[in-house]
């Protein structure tokens, strides 16, 4: 029977577990994780692995000591470390592993997103273990997701996973960073991710990890909103995996939210980086939020930023509060000319009218 009733899981493993001393890969913690993966598969639970560690694993191959490491040095380390990391995992399994390297650009492009979806499902159907990482060697800051916790949440959504398991070097989410606040206590369950939960999260305590607890809570926020239970667990302890297999409580469980929204709305909400904002007047805010209407140029009060047609934009109130995110049918320059205009006035102001709406209701998601 599937582990905990999960048909498919995404397991994210942090750098501190792959290359704990930043001196090449170590199997010290990977053995029990690999055994867990094999047991899941044997029980009928499909596994997608999101593995960090390429920079840490390749660190000793590139002679550069000054911190912070410049981007070109990190990219060179990642180029060495990625193949070391893949080799490290592959030696632990008697089935095939597949390398999938992604950037944020791949996840925000609908066509590439669907290709990733198809590839993952084909690999899983053929019993291959997909091992995903960010394509650090080619990705510049603007193209990156930036951390593998958020990447793993996006992969869990693409893969339609039942659960996201984030393996770190700590037992779960504490009320404060236990490395600096020894009185902090572990939260076994979080049913709603509020500002108070975000306030508990601190950064990483070492130079190998990216983001600390903050990125893990962001990931849990994304995944639970998509109906995916998310666990933060200690991947350094073999007992963690025994508890999981025995269906016992372990780590911090972030409960999935009841309401599910469509894959397209998830994609709109989580996979796009907004290039600017459209400011709505009061009537348009009501139409969009209460009546589920499209945003018309007549309800636009102004714009911020320099975006093009097809870009993601935030929809905000005049007070600056964000109410939605969507894809704009017009560039910022065009919208400045037609803001406040009735549909029949668009051609007169612009010389053409490719669309009567600025943001179509199917292309926007409310916050
Ligand atoms: N509230 C908190 N609860 C637990 N750990 C926290 C908290 N705030 C910050 N941390 C830090 O986050 C670290 C885990 O994140 P990180 O170092 O990025 O690991 P990984 O490489 O697994 O992503 C912990 O070891 C701890 O130092
Ligand atoms: N993609 C990077 C890891 C980025 C990252 O989020 O690291 P971590 O916080 O250890 O999960 C790498 O492979 O080095």
TrEMBL record:
Residues 276-359 form the PUA domain. It is an enzyme of class 2 (transferase). It comes from the Bacteria. Keywords: Amino-acid biosynthesis, ATP-binding, Cytoplasm, Kinase, Nucleotide-binding, Proline biosynthesis, Transferase. Its EC number is 2.7.2.11. Belongs to the glutamate 5-kinase family. This is Glutamate 5-kinase. It comes from Alishewanella tabrizica.
